[in-house]
Amino acid sequence: MTNKPTHHALQAIETKERVIWNRIGAAWVHGDGKGFNVKLDSIPLDGEVILREIGAKDAPETAREDVSGLWDGASA
């Protein structure tokens, strides 16, 4: 595992107006590229964790409403 994580672990919280992205941990790609080590600081009640490459500013591809521009990469 490298010192810097390669992915953010996120939770999507849906409100009436928008989806709020909450960073809940980080992930590191295994040296062989075939898996991840994941460290979670909290666990979403719905059990859904979204992993996104660090630096990816576009919205995750999910069935949720259009949330482009809401995730800015800043810590929640």
Which strand order does the major sheet show?
3-2-1-4
Mean pLDDT figure: 78
Based on CA atoms alone, the radius of gyration comes out at 13 Å
What's the oligomerization state? single chain
What is the N-to-C order of secondary-structure elements (H for helix, E for strand)?
EEEE
Question: What is the straight-line distance between the termini?
Answer: 24 Å
Would you tell me the structural class of the helices and strands? mainly beta
Unreliable spans: 61-76
Report on the biggest sheet: 4 strands, antiparallel
Tally of strands: 4
Give the DSSP E fraction (strand runs of 2 or more residues): 35-45%
> Which descriptor suits the 3D outline?
elongated
Count of discrete alpha- or pi-helical segments spanning 4 or more residues: 0
Task: Tag the structure with descriptive keywords.
single chain; mainly beta; four-stranded antiparallel sheet; 4 strands; 76 residues; disordered C terminus
